[in-house]
């Protein structure tokens, strides 16, 4: 066996060598023909430019090709070559496809500038629409709809109409793509385009449907009523659509569901499980695995029972969630994210754990994709941290991570820290402090601080770790860790005494101004608990006052003021120390320090008028820590507000203790990524954390249950035959679909875009009106018609369900219904014209009512 | 909606400009280049990779990806799912890779006409249209040797007569009418280990991910079913769009009609036992003094089932203030890049039960400071183990339906280092 293998191997390697040799030889030859390389077209001088026109007029395709390639090279270089338009457009009917494709690229680029000349090409496109080759038909429609010349919109319209009924799903896909383009050319065509979209929504080809939904989103995103009969079909087709179609479909179904179902978020699926056994079995057959048609019986019973129990997740909604679940395994990261979006905004909160791992998986791809995923994880984790807490290892920072990835990972780590994983996360964060990257060190220390405040149980060990860091040799580490400690201590006054004593011991070694300022503030704030330490700190500070930084000086002053306020003016030493500091500050170079000294002197030792306090307050310091400033200011304004200004003699010193030593509000440690959760998952606004133009928030959940029966029509929804040419056996649900396709092949001959819609409705309605009549009425279509249908059908759900029973019956019943309709035709004619477009239940109900 | 694309050379010049919707003026590229250079001068450690993938300008959001030295820039005016844009932008170099074998400024310039044709087909009016390589190849012929011969030899006649292929298959990912004389399909199971190992040799985080790369050379429309001996080992899979999800859910088999040529059939996460021994152990010790440091790095094998580990490469980025380095090693070669301050040790092949390679030496700092002395180091590790799969995943049977021939099936396995780093 081995020998054979080896022999084969040598044989193949020989063959490879040989073919390589041949290739090399040929490549050598082709170089002579200058066909190897298209790059030479890029070096263009004026001589060559003159040649282009000659080339384009040439009889030989090869020369034309040369000319066109040169033109495209010019476009690539950013030069305006629109002057050649007349010469190029002549070639649009060339026999050579190569030539034509390049002509198309050129025309699409310049048609807008040369509108009149562009019209010359339209004739050829129209002819091509009837070509035998599907690719040529598709290409003709694509280019024609792509030349943005408003005059031709009726011709484009005709082209779309023609291609919508094409047998090739590829051509139909292109037709769907042309719809929004046509809409942009001429918004007045909207009604006609709406008709086409309605027809095309019935398309059962997974190849086409994604593009139809795209057109829907572009042209009439608000006509969600058109989706009712297609909802279940779309859910079923989801898994087989192409990846870009899946994205569009998920987006649409999310919007649809937000308007049609009650909010299940926060409800548990346990409620569903708790429902009666009978119902459960029904539900099971309803959503059985084989993707076959939805059976009516189960449908009705589920609807009636859901009326009884409004708390459960709507079955249609859970069907969508179930159908979307496999897409989490898509290789397209946007599809995965779209499913995550669906689950975040639609599913009960407890189901959201399902999206955790797939999202984490995306972290193994390109860094740009990681960037988006991490942003979304931040948003999700800030609402539901439990989705990601077990994946903490994946958010560990690697030395090769770009800055923006690194910062996001640190944010996530602090968000998802729990009691069970905090030890690992903390150990990891302390590892980052060793990094040579200053930025990372700072971020890591802040992250430790946030972890500690999020999980009070762990705060002690965090504080210990931070305290160790404050002895570090690196200044920035010291500064950051002291700041972090100060924030933590504010939240946990209980621990303060020991910690502050520790910090003051280190004061001699700490040189970083920010760190010193923070320690002074801490001592001052908690001086009542530090009767021995605090005066000593003030003594030391007074000694070194001249060499302190501005922010430290301000804090030393505050410390002195607080001590005096605490001890009263009785303690001589403290008073002397404070006055010494005040005197030093009086001659300081910095006006902030001077101001503060004056302010404190007046406040503590009483002054002529209290207004001083009010004015001083405006000139408050420019401290680097905003929350501190807020705290100080907050305390002041509050207390000052309590005084009565009418009193001339305002003795502030009586209140000095309340002013200076008021309880300071602990700072809230906000995650830097805070605020993202208010945006739609996956949106650009979320990533940038601000509203981007064109952002549309999700619709709010309805407060009352919209009529669930509107979707039931889907059961009998059938498309014209040409739309049923499903993807072959390659698809997931091929078998079920082929079965479905058999029944209605007889319909495809009826043609006409209008009739197919009617074919698509229930049997009861089919044949009720003649095709001509329908076409007439469709002209007068009005958008308000869907309103009454939905409101009516809501109240009439019982009746329409009765119709449901009859309509799905056999031929006999259909016949009788037909008679009914015909009999009523006369008196209906007037009223019907406006209501014609109303979806089925209304019409059938009317017919039924007369019965 | 993805409106336009600019492909920029490493120097920021426009190589390709394509507008699918309305024209976006070129000056947006100048703005972008300014922003990039501004961002890159903001800090000393900042490289092109650190530049944000979305940069806001007054009018546009400049969505960009950076790959192989080229920037693919897509300015958008309105809210759009950025992930979709990134996904699409990454498809462009993917497809160029498929067409031209490599992607670079020169390659794009040499094939710019083909690139424009591809871009035309991939996107229609701002919405992705055809992105499957197989389908694209039917519309835009790849510049393979055969096409070149035809165009060259019979240039005068065949250009005009070449017909467009009529048969588009129903499956967007597979061409119709594929024919091979010998029908073969090859599966490469590649597993990558991502790990962060601390200085004591303990894995702080460790994960393995596998991909099954497939090269299909089968005629007609084969419907394949691939089953594994031990499918339980895999977890959290993602599939090529040809794979039927439901079949995997219910029976744990891969049922699919393959595209023609190379594609990634499946990726998965390996369920590693809680105490997995890593195949390779790197023991670094770095003693930092006032003006320099002594270091000592050894590499030894563990748990490779007797297989040799190949292409072992260790990279140690040193502190920016490092000026001198002396070292010696008893295996492979080392190289110090004094500009990037990176020490790279190319160990080569390590055979089990042989002496473990050691690299030792010292380096000195130009300026000494406390921050330098306390900095930690990270060693990047690369290696490959052939015919070895960390998970032990084994292909069982390949069944073929819908065609009558019997295909040859080849399976190879390989384990290699993914993002593997050791802290010192």
Automatic annotation (TrEMBL), chain A:
Keyword entries, A-Z: Membrane, Protein transport, Transport
Keyword Nucleotide-binding: no
Acidic residues: bias regions: 777-838
Domain of life: Eukaryota
Region (Disordered): 288-309, 612-638, 721-851
Coiled-coil regions listed in the entry: none
Biased composition (Low complexity): 737-750
Domain Clathrin/coatomer adaptor adaptin-like N-terminal per the UniProt entry, residue ranges: 49-604
Membrane spanning stretches: none
SUPFAM superfamilies (UniProt xref): ARM repeat (SSF48371)
Compartment(s) of residence: Endomembrane system
Main location per the UniProt record: membrane
Pfam families, A to Z: Adaptin_N
Gene3D superfamilies: Leucine-rich Repeat Variant (1.25.10.10)
Cellular component GO terms, alphabetical: AP-3 adaptor complex; endomembrane system
Similarity remark: Belongs to the adaptor complexes large subunit family.
The protein, known as: AP-3 complex subunit beta-2
Organism listed in the record: Mortierella alpina
Gene: AP3B2
Automatic annotation (TrEMBL), chain B:
One Pfam family this sequence matches: Clat_adaptor_s
Family note: Belongs to the adaptor complexes medium subunit family.
Parts forming coiled coils: none
Entry protein name: AP-3 complex subunit mu-2
Annotated gene: AP3M2
Keyword vocabulary terms for this entry: Membrane, Protein transport, Transport
Compartment annotation: Endomembrane system
MHD domain segment(s): 182-423
Domain of life of the native organism: Eukaryota
GO BP terms in the entry: intracellular protein transport; vesicle-mediated transport
Heme keyword on record: no
Species this protein is from: Mortierella alpina
InterPro entries given in the database record: Adaptor_comp_med_subunit, AP2_Mu_C_sf, AP_mu_sigma_su, Clathrin_mu, Longin-like_dom_sf, MHD
């Amino acid at each position: 066996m081995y020998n054979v293998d080896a022999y084969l191997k040598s044989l193949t390697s020989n063959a490879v060598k040989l073919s390589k040799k041949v290739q090399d030889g040929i490549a050598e030859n082709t170089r002579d023909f200058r066909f190897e390389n298209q790059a030479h077209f890029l070096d263009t001088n004026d001589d060559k430019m003159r040649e282009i026109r000659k080339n384009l007029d040439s009889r030989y395709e090869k020369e034309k090709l040369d000319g066109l390639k040169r033109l495209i090279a010019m476009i690539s270089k950013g030069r305006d070559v629109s002057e050649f338009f007349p010469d190029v457009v002549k070639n649009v009917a060339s026999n050579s496809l190569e030539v034509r494709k390049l002509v198309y690229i050129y025309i699409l680029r310049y048609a807008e500038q040369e509108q009149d000349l562009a019209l010359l090409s339209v004739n050829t496109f129209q002819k091509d629409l009837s070509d035998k080759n599907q690719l040529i038909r598709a290409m003709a429609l694509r280019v024609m709809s792509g030349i943005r010349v408003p005059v031709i919109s009726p011709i484009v319209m005709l082209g779309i109409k023609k291609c919508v009924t094409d047998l090739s799903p590829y051509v139909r896909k292109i037709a769907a793509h042309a719809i929004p383009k046509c809409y942009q050319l001429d918004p007045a065509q909207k009604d006609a385009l709406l008709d086409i979209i309605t027809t095309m929504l019935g398309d059962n080809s997974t190849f086409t449907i994604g593009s139809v939904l795209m057109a829907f989103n572009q042209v009439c995103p608000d006509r969600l009523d058109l989706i009712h009969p297609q909802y279940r079909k779309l859910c079923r087709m989801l898994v087989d659509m192409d990846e870009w179609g899946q994205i569009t479909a998920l987006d649409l179904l999310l919007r649809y569901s937000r308007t049609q179902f009650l909010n299940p978020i926060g409800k548990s699926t346990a409620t569903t499980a708790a429902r009666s056994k009978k119902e459960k079995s029904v539900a099971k057959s309803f959503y059985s695995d084989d993707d076959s048609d939805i059976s009516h019986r189960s449908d009705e019973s589920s609807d009636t029972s859901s009326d009884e129990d409004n708390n459960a997740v709507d079955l249609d909604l859970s069907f969508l969630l179930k159908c979307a679940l496999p897409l989490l395994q898509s290789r397209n990261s946007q599809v995965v994210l779209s499913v995550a979006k669906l689950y975040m905004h639609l599913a009960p909160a407890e189901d959201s754990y399902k999206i955790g791992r797939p999202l984490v998986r995306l972290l193994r791809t390109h860094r740009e994709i990681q960037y988006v995923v991490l942003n979304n994880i931040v948003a999700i984790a800030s609402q539901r941290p439990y989705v990601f807490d077990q994946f903490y290892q994946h958010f560990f920072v690697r030395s090769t991570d770009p800055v923006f990835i690194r910062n996001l990972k640190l944010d996530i780590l602090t968000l998802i820290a729990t009691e069970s994983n905090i030890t690992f996360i903390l150990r990891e964060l302390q590892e980052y402090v060793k990094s040579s990257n200053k930025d990372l060190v700072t971020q890591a220390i802040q992250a430790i601080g946030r972890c500690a405040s999020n999980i009070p149980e762990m705060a002690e060990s965090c504080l210990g770790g931070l305290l160790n860091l404050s002895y570090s040799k690196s200044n920035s580490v010291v500064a950051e860790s002291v700041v972090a400690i100060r924030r933590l201590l504010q939240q946990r006054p209980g621990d303060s005494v020991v910690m502050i004593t520790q910090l003051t011991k280190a004061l001699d070694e700490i040189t970083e101004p920010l760190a010193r300022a923070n320690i002074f503030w801490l001592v001052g704030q908690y001086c009542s608990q530090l009767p021995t330490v605090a005066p000593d700190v003030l003594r030391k500070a007074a000694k070194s006052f001249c060499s302190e930084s501005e922010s430290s000086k301000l804090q030393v002053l505050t410390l002195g003021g607080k001590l005096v306020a605490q001890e009263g003016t009785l303690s001589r030493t403290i008073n002397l120390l404070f006055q010494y500091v005040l005197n030093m500050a009086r001659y300081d170079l910095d006006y902030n320090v001077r101001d503060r000294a004056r302010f404190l002197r007046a406040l503590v030792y009483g002054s002529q008028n209290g207004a001083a306090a009010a004015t001083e307050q405006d000139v408050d310091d420019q401290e680097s820590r905003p929350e501190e400033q807020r705290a100080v200011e907050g305390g002041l304004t509050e207390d000052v507000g309590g005084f009565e200004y009418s009193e001339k003699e305002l003795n502030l010193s009586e209140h000095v203790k309340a002013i200076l030593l008021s309880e300071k509000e602990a700072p809230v440690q906000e995650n830097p990524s805070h605020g993202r959760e208010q945006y739609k998952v996956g949106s650009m606004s979320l990533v940038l954390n601000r509203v981007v133009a064109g952002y549309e928030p999700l619709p709010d959940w309805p407060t009352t249950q919209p009529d669930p029966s509107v979707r039931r029509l889907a059961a009998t929804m059938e498309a014209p035959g040409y739309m049923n040419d499903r993807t072959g056996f390659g698809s997931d649900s091929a078998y079920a679909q082929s079965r479905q396709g058999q029944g209605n092949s007889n319909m495809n001959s009826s043609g006409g875009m209008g009739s197919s819609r009617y074919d698509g409705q229930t049997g009861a309605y089919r044949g009720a009106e003649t095709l001509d009549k329908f076409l007439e009425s469709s002209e007068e279509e009005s958008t308000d018609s869907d309103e009454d249908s939905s409101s009516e059908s809501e109240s009439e759900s019982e009746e329409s369900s009765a119709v449901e029973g009859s309509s799905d019956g056999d031929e006999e019943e259909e016949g009788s219904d037909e008679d009914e309709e015909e009999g009523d035709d006369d008196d209906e004619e007037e009223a019907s014209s406006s209501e014609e477009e109303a979806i089925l239940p209304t019409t059938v109900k009317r017919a039924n009512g007369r019965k | 909606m993805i409106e336009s694309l600019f492909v920029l050379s490493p120097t920021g010049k426009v190589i390709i400009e394509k507008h699918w919707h309305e024209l976006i003026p070129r000056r947006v590229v100048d703005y972008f280049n300014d922003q990039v250079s501004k961002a890159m001068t903001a800090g000393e450690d900042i490289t092109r990779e650190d530049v944000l993938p979305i940069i806001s300008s007054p009018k546009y959001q400049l969505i960009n990806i950076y790959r192989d030295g080229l920037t693919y820039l897509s300015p958008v005016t309105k809210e759009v799912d950025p992930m979709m844009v990134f996904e699409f932008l990454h498809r462009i170099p993917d497809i160029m890779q498929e067409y031209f074998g490599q992607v670079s400024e020169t390659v794009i310039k040499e094939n710019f006409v083909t690139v424009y044709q591809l871009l035309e087909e991939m996107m229609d009016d701002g919405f992705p249209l055809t992105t499957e390589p197989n389908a694209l190849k039917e519309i835009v012929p790849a510049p393979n040797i055969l096409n070149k011969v035809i165009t060259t030899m019979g240039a005068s006649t065949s250009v005009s007569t070449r017909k467009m292929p009529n048969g588009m298959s129903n499956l967007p990912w597979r061409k119709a009418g594929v024919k091979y004389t010998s029908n073969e399909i090859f599966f490469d199971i590649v597993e990558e280990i991502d790990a962060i190992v601390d200085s004591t040799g303990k894995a702080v985080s460790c994960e393995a991910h596998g991909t099954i790369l497939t090269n299909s050379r089968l005629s007609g429309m084969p419907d394949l079913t691939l089953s594994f001996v031990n499918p339980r080992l895999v977890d959290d899979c993602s599939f090529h769009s040809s794979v039927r999800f439901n079949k995997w859910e219910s029976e744990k088999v891969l049922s699919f009609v393959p595209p023609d040529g190379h594609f990634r059939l499946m990726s998965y996460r390996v369920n590693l036992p809680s105490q997995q021994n890593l195949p390779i152990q790197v023991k670094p010790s770095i003693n930092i003094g006032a003006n320099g440091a002594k270091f000592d790095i050894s590499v030894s094998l563990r748990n490779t089932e007797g297989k040799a580990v190949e292409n072992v490469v260790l990279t140690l980025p040193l502190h920016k203030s490092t000026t001198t380095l002396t070292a010696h090693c008893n295996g492979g070669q080392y190289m110090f890049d004094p500009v990037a301050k990176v020490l790279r040790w190319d160990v080569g092949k390590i055979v089990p039960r042989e002496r473990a390679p050691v690299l030792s030496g010292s380096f000195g700092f130009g300026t000494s400071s406390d921050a330098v002395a306390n900095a930690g180091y990270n060693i990047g590790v690369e290696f490959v183990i052939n015919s070895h799969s960390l998970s032990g995943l084994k292909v069982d049977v390949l069944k073929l339906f819908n065609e009558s021939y019997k295909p040859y099936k080849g399976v190879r396995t390989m384990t290699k280092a993914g993002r593997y780093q050791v802290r010192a």
